[in-house]
Every structure is written in C-alpha cells, then in structure tokens.
Amino acid sequence: MTDKFSWIEDELRTLQEAGLRTTIRTIGSACGAWMVVDGKKVLNFCTNNYLGLANHPRLKSAAQAALEKWGAGPAAVRSIAGTLELHRELETRLAAFKEVEDALYVQSGFCANQAVIPALVGKEDIIFTDRLNHASIIDGCRLSSAEIVVYEHCDVEDAERAIKAHKGKYRRAMLITDGVFSMDGDIAPLDRLHALCEQHGIITMVDDAHGEGVVGRSGRGIVDHFRLNGKFDLEIGTLSKAFGVVGGVIAGRKLVIDWIRQKARPFLFSSAVTAADTAACLAAVELLEQGSELVDKLWENTRYFKEGMRRAGFDTGPSATPITPVMLGEASLAQQFSRKLFDGEPGLFAMPIGFPTVPQGKARIRVMISAAHSREDLDLGLEIFAKVGKELGVIS
C-alpha cells in the first residue's frame, strides 16, 4: 500500500539539500543575555527580548500574584465569561500609553492581524499592502476576501500609483504596513503614507510588533515616532517582544475597537489570555511609563554593535533599528555560519533566516540586540562573529 505521506519525505529532503530546512533548538533556561540552548550555555543574540523584560523580577512577581488570585486560566473566551478585570485594566493602560481612545488585548500579534482585517474589509473592498509585510498581515488579507494590491517596499510613489489605478473600483480601502520590518530592520515612511491615505480616504493600519518598546518616546512605538498619535486609524502590536510576555494589542478609535469586539473571530472564538500573562504585561507597561532608561540602553547597545560589525566588514543591510541582519546571500552559507557560531567556545545563539521568510539570495543571520547585553557581551559577540566570518571567507 502506498504511503499517503511519502511526498513529505521528498519535500523535506529538498529543503535539506537547499539549506532551507528549519532546525528548531530547545531552550533550557529563562530568556536573557545568556541562555541554555540544546543543553549548552550560549550568548543570546536571537530572541526578541529587546528590553530584557522577559525575566524581569517585577514581571515575574506580578505574574505570580495574579496566578494566586485568579488561577491558572480564565477557562472561557472573552465574549462569554473570560474577560477579567485585569484584561480591561491592561487595555485602558495600553490606550493611554499609545494616546488613543481604546485598545483590545488578544492572544497574539498574529491573532490581532487576523482579527482586524476581515472585520473591516471584505469582498467588495481593496487592500494596499507593502511587499515585505509580515506573514500575519498576508494571512489576514487572504481571510478578508478583499482584493489585494501589493505596492513596492516602502515606496510611497508606488502606493500612490496603485491607489489611483484602482480609484472608484471598491467600496472601502485599507492600506497596511509594518512599522519596523522584522527581517531588515528598516522603518516604514509612516508620515507620507498617512498623508497619502488621508488624501484618498483610505483606512490606515500599521503593525508595530518590532516598534513597540523600541522607537518613540519611552518605546511608545512607530506612530509616536512620527508624532501621529491618534491619527493613524489602527495600531497593531505585540506584547511578546519588547514587553517580554505574550499577547497582541489592537489600538485606535473607540468606535472601531467596539466593532472589532463584535466581529473579530480570534477574539470571539479563542480562549482569553491568562491572568498571569496579563498582569506581567501590565507590569511591563508600568516600567516603560516610568522612564526611557531601558530604551536608551537598547539603542546605546545597538549603535555600538552595528558600528563594530561595519568596522569588521559585515554587511548589515538597511536596518535603522536594533534588528541587525548580517547579510550572507545563500541559505546554505547562513546555516553553516549559524552552526559555527553556536558550536564555538563560547557559543553564540543566532539563527539563520532564509527563503521563504526572506527572498531567495538574501539569506542572513538576524542579530537581535537587547538592553540586557553588557558591553562585555557585545565585545565577545563581535569577536565571535569576526572569527567565523574569516573562517568562512565572508570578511577578510
């Protein structure tokens, strides 16, 4: 009898030969500047723990207290019996932090994009989307059944051309962009995109997953960075990166957020986030409200590390944020480079990124700088990268 899934072996073999098969490593410690990965203590340049909050004492204490008071899980979806006082408190605090009317806390940033897009546009509508937008945006657009028009990456003129070419052919229109692009670390021209959309009456939406806690005043995000607070229609965020916990946030006008509460399927049909996670998120917001010390340290570390990499001869792409892509080209080289980083003594944890996450021929090691890194950590990281880069002929 023929194995119905024999084709999977062939496909996995093809991925392996092309250097595109993902190797999933196992973490054996809390997230920090140093971690235990696959049983080995290594320097961590891989996680999205921008501000070092994932193992912060205040967040852990808040989570422990909430666990004692509220229990392990809410045991219901938000719309039936799962909305805790903590959820509403976090939403109020996030709205105030972002200087918008309202916010909705959902299970993840991925869920947030899938919640918003189909709730606002459908078959009679159109979406203008940046070519390099995150997979969660792409999937949300597909779920909406709206016409999808891709404009070239961060190209306002191309977005305008697309908008004019489709004028009058839709009921509603939405333009969606990442704020900080997760693979290249560059920033969307949000001010110019906003002006364009205002001119043509288009709904504006930005995914700020890698901007929150990183750019803007005390990490208020990409919209704050461009001083567009309350003007951009929808801000989508995540609390799993700089905030160090888990969950997604949808922020904007109260009218729009109320509508999403009525129509968003991930919100309506998936269980609420736990009290412990919610309380930890509240603690993270409080830390950021108190000052910019951690954000300042993150940027100080970023500038130091990037300058060291450039001096060593590495190509770090167009990044304008702590995301530091070490451009290598071929996926097989990126995988080899990552293994050598990890296998050294001491080892360094930084995963390779290849197709389809990034275009063919643009594989890289993506380095994620954190406020948790000391100057000694950064110097050691630069030393390890230079050693492997010379061994593999990437730098001379």
TrEMBL record:
Domain of life where this protein originates = Bacteria
The residues covered by the Aminotransferase class I/classII large domain are 40-383
Tell me which Pfam families the record gives. Aminotran_1_2
Q: Which cofactor does it need?
A: pyridoxal 5'-phosphate
Provide the GO MF annotations for this entry: glycine C-acetyltransferase activity; pyridoxal phosphate binding
Kindly give the InterPro entries that the UniProt entry links to this protein.
Answer: Aminotrans_II_pyridoxalP_BS, Aminotransferase_I/II_large, AON_synthase_class-II, AONS_Archaea/Firmicutes, PyrdxlP-dep_Trfase, PyrdxlP-dep_Trfase_major, PyrdxlP-dep_Trfase_small
Residue ranges annotated as transmembrane are none
What are the protein's UniProt keywords? Answer: Acyltransferase, Pyridoxal phosphate, Transferase
State its Enzyme Commission number(s).
2.3.1.29
Whether DNA-binding counts among this entry's keywords is no
| Residues forming coiled coils | none
Which PANTHER family does the protein's record reference?
CLASS II AMINOTRANSFERASE/8-AMINO-7-OXONONANOATE SYNTHASE, LD36009P
Q: Which family does it belong to?
A: Belongs to the class-II pyridoxal-phosphate-dependent aminotransferase family.
Q: How does it assemble?
A: Homodimer.
**The name this protein goes by in its record:** Glycine C-acetyltransferase
Read off the lineage from the record: Bacteria, Pseudomonadati, Thermodesulfobacteriota, Desulfuromonadia, Geobacterales
